[in-house]
Amino acid sequence: MSSVRLETLEREMELLRAALYREIEGEYKRLSHTSILPISRELDEILNQYYAEKKRRPS
Known about the structure:
Oligomer: single chain
Number of strands: 0
Strand content: under 5%
Structural class: mainly alpha
Number of helices: 2
Order of helices and strands: HH
Radius of gyration: 13 Å
Largest sheet: none
Mean pLDDT: 89
């Protein structure tokens, strides 16, 4: 993957984080709301892809 791919993943992570914050609306008890799980799972997948790519790249 190229650095463009990493940048794309970073943008996706930020968008998903923002979506989570909007759903939570400052009320952390909403973390168990059913609307949170799909966003959280998608963010987890993007994070996994991002860190796997970072691990493959030379330092």
